[in-house]
Structure formats: C-alpha cells, structure tokens
Amino acid sequence: MAVPRMFPCVLTVTALALTACTSTGTPSEPQPGSSVASGAIGPGGPAGDGATAVETAPPATPTPATLTPEAYRVQLDAVRGPVRDALSKVASAGSLKSLESRADDAEDALNEAASTLAALTPPAEVAAQHADFVDALRGMSAGMGDLRVAVDSRSVCTASGALASLGKSGELKELQEAADALSDVGDYPSDVVSVKARAETSRRLPNGRYLRSESRNGRGNLAINNGGSRDAVVTLLRGKKRVISVYVRKKSKFTVAGVRDGKYRVYFTTGTDWDARERSFSRSCSFQRFEDSFPFKTTYTATQVRWQNWRITLHAIKGGNAQTGDVNPDDFPS
Q1: What keywords sit in the KW lines (predicted)?
Q2: CA 312 to chain centre
Q3: Cα dist from 209 to 196, 204, 205, 247, whole Å
Q4: Does the reported pTM lie above 0.90?
C-alpha cells in the first residue's frame, strides 16, 4: 500500500487562512488574499465575484374586473343549466348503478359551477349573496359525494332514498336558500335546484302481500321465516320467469301455498322503506339468492299422492344447510 504523503501546500493554505483572519482594514472592502462570496447558492451554483442576488416578488395575480349585472346574469345562466340537469337525473335514476353514476356526475357539475363563479367579481350589491351561493354550491357538491358513497355501500338504494338523504343532511335546503337570496337582489338566474327533498319514510307492506303471483294451483308449500332485522321480498323464478314475489316482514313468517311443480331459484332482498314505484327498498338494501334450487314435484301412485314442501330461513341459523350468495342489484329479478 502506498504511504500517504504530506504536501507543503497544506501548510500554505493554512497560513493564508490565518492571514485572512487577522487582517485589518475597512470591513466593507475585500482584503488582498481573502475571498468574498455574495449572492445565493442555488441550482446554478454559488454566486461570486461580486455578484449580488436580488429577491423579486412574484407577479401579482390580476383581480378580475367587476362584472356588470348583465354580464353576471350571463355567467349565472351558463352554470345554471348543467346543475339543474344533473340534479334532475339523480332524482330520476332507475337503478342503483345509474344512481351512483348520476350522483358522481352531479358532484362534478356542482363543483365546476362553484369554481367558475368563485373566479368572478360580481356586482358590488350582490357580493355577499354571491359568496354564500358559491359556498352552498360547494356544500352541495360535498353532499353529492357523500350520497355517492352511501349508494355504493347500499345505505341509499333508490332515487327517493337519495332525495330523502339530501333532505336530511340539509345541503339541498341551504343551496335553495342561497339561490333565492341571490335571485331576490336583482332577478338573477340562480335557480339551480330542480328537485325537491323528501322526508325520510319507512313504508311497509302487510306481511304476506303478494307483489306478483301466477295461479297457485299446485300442492307444494314454501314456508318462509324472516327472523332478520329488516323486511324482505322473496321472489321465485321457474326457469327465467318470475312467477311469485311476496313481502315478508321482519321477525315474521309466511307460507306460499299452491306452488306448482317445477324447479325454482329463490331470491330475496331485504331493507327499509319499500318503494313500490322502484320495486325496491330505498335504504339499507341487500340482494341475495339461495345457491341451490328447490324442486317441487308431485308423484301419483295407485293409492296415494306425494309432493314436496320446503322451508327456508332468511337469516343465519345454527345447523342451517342452505348457502346464500350476494347478487348484483342489476341482475336481481324485480
């Protein structure tokens, strides 16, 4: 290995450094043999040789010119249509999938409207109402985001449930009040709310009410026990045809009598607040089916007639021997 060597230049550098430290002179002037650095160190390297770095303030963002009432009306009218259309589509959604998608679209439309208006300087006489309106649009956009999450988790399941949820949370009312306040000042087109909130309800059908039924002239019976915490609608399919649907209240039992011979698939949906128009529960909904089919068969002999009856429970029980699985709501026979 080579032995490190000491070079005389090391001592020379040290001596120069000592000379620089003990020099006297005018502090503001560089002394011979000393180095002066001024400026700033940045991506380009140190600034020296007398260079001076000067900080400059970023250019100020120009303030938008104050709009005339006529120009402001034009801007309001441009955002009014998309928001009204988006809210109307939420209210008319006919499935869970479309409800979730339309809530997402409404969230975007409301947020875009708020951003567009926030960049404007309105006429001075409506400055306060304008600010409240923008805040209400943002609040409604956040409310639509919450609604989308609720639909995805099946807490909200129908358009009527969505309007009840928006009514309960208050954002729809706040947006309507802000829109009215702005309109009242100068007849501005701020009426973006195209739907009405609903009160939350808990509509139920009587236990054993048939929603659909073919002629029940068979011999078989299907006994249904709904020991769960939510009402249910049980649907029987023979082949691809929905032949029987019956409402069974929570903690209740019902027997479908006269089931005709055939092999049946049994589906059931549970939830709260039965929406007859949508044929679905509006809140806390689930969609399931029994994995195995149920054969009903009547056998005749010379001396007797034999047939099959079935008994199902819609809640988990100890010793149960039937498996159920979730069903995509779009594939549920409603």
Answers
A1: Signal
A2: 35
A3: 31, 10, 7, 5
A4: no
> Does 176 share its domain with 231?
no
* Tokens linked to 63: 């303030």
Least confidently predicted of 9-18, 21-30, 229-238, 259-268:
9-18
Last residue of a domain, one of 151, 186, 221: 186
- Provide the phi-psi class of 208: left if phi over 0, else alpha when psi is between -120 and 50, else beta: left
Tens of pLDDT, residues 209-256: 999 999 999 999 999 999 999 999 999 999 999 999 999 999 999 999
Query: How many domains in the chain?
Result: 2
CB atoms within 10 A of CB 229: 11
Residue 263 identity (one-letter amino acid):
K
Instruction: Label each residue of the chain as H, E or C.
Output: CCCCCCCHHHHHHHHHHHHHHHCCCCCCCCCCCCCCECCCCECCECCECCCCCCCCCCCCCCCCCECCHHHHHHHHHHHHHHHHHHHHHHHCCCCHHHHHHHHHHHHHHHHHHHHHHHCCECCHHHHHHHHHHHHHHHHHHHHHHHHHHHHHCCCECCHHHHHHHHHHHCHHHHHHHHHHHHHHHHCCCCCCCCCCCCCCCCCCCCCCCEEEECCCCCCEEEEEEECCCCEEEEEEEECCEEEEEEEECCCEEEEEEEECCEEEEEEEEEEEEEECCCCEEEEEEEEEEECCCEEECCEECCCCEECCCEEEECCCCCCCCCCEEECCHHHCCC
Q: 102 and 145: one domain?
A: yes
How many angstroms separate the CA atoms of 218 and 215, rounded?
9
CATH number for the domain that contains residue 294:
2.60.40
Residue 236 in domain? yes
pLDDT at 11 over 50: no
